[in-house]
Amino acid sequence: MSTPAQKQEPLFEVDRDLLKRLMRRTKTGSEMTGRGLAEAAGLAHGTVGNILSGETEQVFASTAEAICHAIGVELLVLCTPVFRLAVVRQKALTA
């Protein structure tokens, strides 16, 4: 007997160069630091630092949405959805 697969939170790739540019001029018109972004987004400053440095390439949707909300842009302006291999395989098997 197989168990149903748990729904996994989608992954997004953040355009870190665009993020850096947007941090220079946020929705309020002021500049935002990495720590300021982390605080505004409710994230750990290490998470934001890892995204900005390129150490973290993919983030969960909730993280991407929090960053976009703090910066003042729509999700798909800053982030690209990443399709998980398991989902792609599942679709290929059912097709």
Walk me through what this model shows.
This protein starts with 10 loop residues before the first strand and ends with a helix. Helix content is 54%, strand content 12%. By secondary structure, the chain is mainly alpha-helical. The mean pLDDT is 86. It has six helices and three strands.
Shape: elongated
- Report strand %: 5-15%
Structural class: mainly alpha
Distance between the termini: 22 Å
Number of strands: 3
Helix coverage percent:
40-55%
Q: Stretches where pLDDT falls below 50 for ≥5 residues? A: none
Mean pLDDT: 86
Question: What is the C-alpha radius of gyration, as a whole number of Å?
Answer: 16 Å
Strands of the widest sheet, in order across it, are 2-1-3
Query: What pattern of helices and strands is seen along the backbone?
Result: EHHHEHHEH
Helical stretch tally: 6
Biggest pleated sheet = 3 strands, antiparallel
Helix-strand layout with pairing:
Layout: E1 11-14, H1 16-24, H2 34-41, H3 45-53, E2 58-60, H4 61-71, H5 75-78, E3 79-82, H6 85-94
Helix pairs in contact: 2-3, 2-4
